[in-house]
Amino acid sequence: MRTRHVVGAVVAALAIPLTLAFPAASHGYITTPPSRAALCDVHTHGVAWDCGDIQWEPQSVEGSKGFPALGPSDGTICAGGNARFAELDDPHGGAWPTTQVSAGQQLTFTWRFTARHATADFRYYLTKPGYDASRPVTRSDLELTPFLTVPYGGQQVPGSLSHTATVPGGRTGHHVIVSVWNISDTANAFYSCSDVRF
What we know:
Elements: H1 2-21, E1 28-32, H2 36-40, E2 62-64, E3 99-100, E4 106-113, E5 119-126, E6 148-151, E7 160-166, E8 174-183, E9 188-197
Parallel strand pairs: 3-9
Antiparallel strand pairs: 1-4, 2-9, 4-7, 5-6, 5-8, 8-9
């Protein structure tokens, strides 16, 4: 009987460090058009530089919600304000791979979810005409009214989900789309930046 107690204590003692070693995983990110997190995914290898921690968990760009009034500070938006993923905010001199788009085109955004959170909504923002892609994204770079908002009413998301929007016009060159997935039952949101070229 005493042996069972000792074995149980050892198992419990080992379980705690193992639980802490693996993050409570999983949330979600944009796969198409490829987000910076998707391009950094260790399975994708879409960029030529070291992406740091995000390569192992592209789904984890979580920050506080309430954007643009609240949320991550300027210059940390693509990483959701999370210093562990600061590589996502580095513009690399405007060298992030881009998806070709045209004004008025229908563009489909596909999210991949690894945790199916209850959801308030999804919001999509685009940088203003004249955006300088060699600088980190700030609020002053963005049109602060989303070009697409998709209410979700607290429902739980499926494993993947797509939204289609008309691409706004009046832009040329490299721009960034900031996509925000607002969770309904926590104080957080997930941030995803996709680079596009008009």
